[in-house]
Input
Amino acid sequence: MSRAGDADTERLERERRLVERGHAGDRQAIGELLSSHGPAIYRSVLLPRLGSEAAARDALSEVYARVVERFHQFQWQAVGFYPWLRMVALRVAIDQLRARKRLVLWDAEDVSRELDAAQTTTPLDQKLSEHRDRQAARAKVEHALARINPRYALAIRRRVLEEMPRDEVARELGVTPATFDVVLHRAMQALRKTLGASDDEQRAQRERERDDAPPSSEAPDA
Amino acid sequence: MPDPRDEHELPDPELARVLRAAWSPDDLSVEEHRKLVAQAIAPRRSKVVRVSFGASAILALAASVLLAVWTDRGPRPGPPSVGPTLSLSRSTQSLFAQPFAPRGGESARVDRIAMARAADLRENQFAKWGVR
Output
């Protein structure tokens, strides 16, 4: 077995022992599990879906409370504790998205679909799951940008996402910095309008996309 | 040079934050995370809450025992007092054994009803005063 494989086996074995201790009522063991996986849940699952650090922090706190309360329901799996923790986090994210009306890239329905996929497919290990969550988040942004003028999308991509200096982006777009400010302002307005489209419009859009999509034999992503 | 991440320079800081949260999410600080974990695994009820709950329970128990003892020592209540039996409002049908004539006799019937009602009222007054 490779060195990485050995390390994974060792990590899982350590995690299994923590779960056993947690089932026996040892809260410190549960705390260690949360300390190991919580940051990834915050970064890959909660923050991208909820769109604000404060909301993601509140959600993580709620996730931890639920985990401690329902830890006895968790049954050990060969992929470890992370997939179960992720499912709890998705549930909390759905609750928050339903309860609050604010600007976000995901709606509760999107996250419900992710949760369904997580429940019906084989659980992934943490690295792969995190990687897919990050890809899904970026795809959401790309999808939103694809719905506005390409020049606007480029302005947002360079200045907001890639954090390039204003002058440099203005040069790339062939405008003065002052004109670039106007372009970026309009770009953000256009994107906000697109994201603020009513639920019905978004649902209709999704249905159109589903109809347009080629048939695929792949299982849904977790 | 200004920090390119300074959201005040961007036209829509909220939207910028949402996009960045999805595109390149930041980590939660170690200290904040440690606090969240500690809060989650801490026992639910604090000592103060437990103590005040215990004190309230003891007080409630003492009050209930005192009430039970007091009730036992006090004079036993007698049977519920029985009030006078009063005439109840009733139909006037029993006053008339014969069918009414097609015409006439209304005043006599009303007089009879009035006398019967007056007798009931008088009897009730006497019963209330206890002189019957």
